[in-house]
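Hi everyone,

Forwarding the result from last night's run.
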Amino acid sequence: MNEARDLPAREVYQILKDVALGVGSLRRMSSRPWKDIFTGTMTSEVDGWMLVLHSEGGRLGYCESCTSPDSRSASLEDWHRFGTNPVDFLSAWEREKVERSLNQA
């Protein structure tokens, strides 16, 4: 099992923040669009990063897992041991922007 220090939550948060700021572009890899997922996951790609994002009631709940372009990976279980998921670092504005990007992907 990978340690969260191999792919810390803050590093994954930066990828989500880049999406919010329009620096990173999000692409849907799952067959179902975000708007059709009330509760469940959607796999997305952001500049080579693979993220599995979870929708809770149509809102971005948490990042279930992430794999970096250099093959480092971490999951909810890894981050949870340290008490923080990458999505938890997003401001309300950043989360809204990421959700918009998910809806447009």
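The chain has a mean pLDDT of 90.

Cheers,
N.
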